[in-house]
């Protein structure tokens, strides 16, 4: 398994001030991950600018224009927690473009990369087709999935979202689309409030949205069981030609925006399981950064993911241990999820 990194040099120009999603998140992450790349001679790709046409495969024209104009007049707030500054539109185009670079790299028939990790901000998974929200301007994952479908001609694409918040934006865009499977692990209840287990797609897309609302206090064991019992078997049956991961690490035990107990080892295991699936199927894996807001632990968590998709041993020293809290209500929840999903999949 060979992996690579996609970096966004302009990320600091998306200025959000005193905000959890800020320009100081990624410099320490990039220092650690480019160090991994150097020591293992793994390629590092530059971002490119996505076109407006790329965005319009997932977003309404009015939304793209609203963000462009608002950013130009910035700093200004698009919703209660989403701020843009004058360069934000351009950075968002490059964040989407970095996601497309990752997809190109792992689907290049002449290339040797099986996976890539795009370190992008602003994050994307809360942005709906016509609205910015939750620190997100455009859904990088949905844009990448539609690009893979419509430009690269890949029949079926899977998006696996393990950010602790529900990926309502990506879900909204793909809700009626049977060619893109959307699977989301997220704490429930939590912002943005959506993602209950009966949200499973509509119209022709019915059955192609899979929500795993995890009880507060869920950790490595619960997430890995969810992967092995639900996400993994559904991915196998869906048989995608590309796997996109919305990689948000804010379910970590030391992240302040939620109440989950994942550790770096858990994130590594989720990444490794995803990469094993992709490798078995001979398909590419593109991981796109979403949340993760504790500056002390984010470099470690992103390293754990990079190692997981790259098939090398992680150095997990410095992680924060999870409390032994017993079953947070997961056993019952898993039964509920299985009952719902058994309408559509063999589980
Ligand atoms: Zn999040």
The CATH topology label is Arginase, Chain A
Give the strand content. Answer: 5-15%
- Largest sheet report: 8 strands, parallel
Secondary-structure element sequence? Answer: EHEHHEEHEHEHEEHEHEHH
Radius of gyration: 18 Å
Shape summary: globular
* Domain count: 1
Largest sheet: spatial strand order: 2-1-5-10-9-6-7-8
Q: Number of helix segments?
A: 10
CATH superfamily: Histone deacetylase domain
**CATH architecture grouping:** 3-Layer(aba) Sandwich
Give the C-level CATH assignment: Alpha Beta
DSSP strand count:
10
Query: What are the distinct ligands in this entry?
Result: zinc ion
Low-pLDDT segments:
none
Mean of residue pLDDT values: 97
Distance from N terminus to C terminus (CA atoms, Å) equals 28 Å
- How helical, in percent, are the residues? 25-40%
What structural category arises from helix and sheet content? Answer: alpha/beta
